[in-house]
Design a protein that fits this description.
about 280 residues; elongated; single chain; 4 strands
């Protein structure tokens, strides 16, 4: 998605603005782009067009709509030619073929009874289309938290999808520090060797076939079973995820310790029993 927005589509703008285009050509190109995006993201057929073309901060995917952007850029370029102080440009602007090109660009700039004369106007148009739709209405508040849609524009390693749509289940267990991590890890592994458990996991995840089940064992102090760290790397997660999981585990362990201290201290026992 990032490559498409930043490279693939912008590379076509130069030849579309300078070359011969029609409304049909631009619509066909947009249809091809939407079909590719729909396939990548497994989107339903009836997704509102505004979701594709609205800016990322407004809740859309930020894909450039060639049908609305190209005429606006052509019109802007031709108008600058008319206003140019260069003699040859001024002479060219007076020619009939330039006037014809301006009329064509003005005609193409009209889309759904709206006149879209700039890229900013195109973004505003598709934002309105998105937020006026039933599915896109709740996205109108995305701009209130500017970082909430950053994962769409910048990407994230927390969301992964494989082409074969293979399901991977990570069963994470946090144990005490006195437990033998390797022994506990193997016990968890044997649990999923039971056919009924594997069938139940398949049904719960909605996978088409038996999912890959991996087992993660760690203590509330943030120490890992050696087998668990290797498994996490094998399923496609990296050191950053190990770091995040360790931090979350430490936070949970600290909270559990504080709760235990609060309910087992001498003062709290006296308060609960009404003693002074």
């Amino acid at each position: 998605m990032v490559a498409m927005r930043a490279c693939l589509i912008p590379r076509q703008i130069h030849r579309l603005v300078l070359g011969s285009v029609s409304s049909k050509l631009l619509k066909n190109l947009d249809t091809m782009v939407r079909g590719t995006v729909r396939k990548w993201l497994s989107l339903p057929q009836d997704v509102t067009l505004g979701f594709y073309y609205a800016p990322v901060p407004k809740g859309g995917l930020g894909v450039m709509c060639l049908r609305t952007v190209t005429p606006a850029l052509r019109l802007h370029r031709l108008n600058l030619l008319i206003l140019s102080s260069h003699f040859r440009c001024a002479v060219a602007a007076s020619k009939d073929f330039i006037k014809c090109a301006i009329r064509q660009a003005e005609g193409l700039a009209v889309f759904r009874r709206d006149i879209i004369e700039s890229s900013a106007a195109s973004r505003r148009f598709w934002t309105r289309i998105l937020h006026q739709s039933y599915e896109g209405g709740p996205l109108s508040r995305c701009a209130e938290a500017k970082g909430s849609t950053a994962w769409i524009g910048e990407g994230t390693t927390f969301l992964k999808r494989k082409e074969d749509e293979q399901c991977v289940v990570l069963d994470v267990q946090v144990v005490g520090t006195r437990m033998n991590l390797s022994v506990v890890h193997q016990a968890k592994r044997r649990k999923y060797l039971i056919p009924d458990m594997l069938m139940h996991t398949t049904s719960a995840t909605g996978a088409r076939s038996y999912p890959t089940v991996s087992y993660i064992t760690m203590t509330y102090r943030g120490t890992w079973a050696s087998e668990s760290a290797s498994i996490l790397l094998d399923v496609g997660l990296g050191r950053e995820h190990i770091k995040v999981a360790t931090i979350r585990c430490l936070q949970g362990g600290l909270r559990a310790f504080r709760v235990r201290q609060r309910w087992t201290s001498v003062r709290n026992r006296r308060d609960r029993h009404g003693l002074e």
